[in-house]
Amino acid sequence: MQQLIKWIDFSVIGDDRGSLVALEANKNIPFDIKRVYYLFGMQSDLPRGFHAHKELIQVAVCVSGSCDILMDNGKDKGVVKLNSPSQGLVIDVMQWHEMSNFSDDCVLMVIASDLYDESDYIRNYDDFLREVNANV
Ligand code: TYD
């Protein structure tokens, strides 16, 4: 069973001109980075996600604004707030996740361990529970 909530604290290089965070494969991001995507222009009352991945590992970083993310490993569930560009939340394999409560200025950047592959998604919650429990 995957640990439910795994944060990564990024070092912030800051001076009078502002702040800088560098994300590097197999250093502060725990895999080879194959893809980066970002979500913006969300509506606070239109949640997204509602899936798990079989093999993909991701790190979600709210680079602007805030949102909530419900994490569910099939046994435990918890909601955490993403509101810092200096913290990443690991979305590990077989972690059902739902993002909601987006601020108007929310930009959610996601670093992924592989290219987009729809066949890696589990989009049905009952299928997710069946697969998690089959692998216990
Ligand atoms: P999806 O992963 O379902 O979004 P969310 O989990 O945030 O609700 O993706 C939405 C759509 O975008 C879906 O049609 C697949 C497509 N998509 C890509 O083409 N490439 C990508 O890298 C991602 C993440 C999604």
TrEMBL record:
Stored CDD domains: cupin_QdtA-like (cd20292)
Which InterPro entries does this entry report, sorted A to Z?
QdtA_cupin_dom, RmlC-like_jellyroll, RmlC_Cupin_sf
Task: Tell me which residues make up the Sugar 3,4-ketoisomerase QdtA cupin domain.
Answer: 5-132
Q: Which SUPFAM superfamilies match?
A: RmlC-like cupins
Name of a matching Pfam family: FdtA
Please report the name of this protein according to its UniProt entry. FdtA/QdtA family cupin domain-containing protein
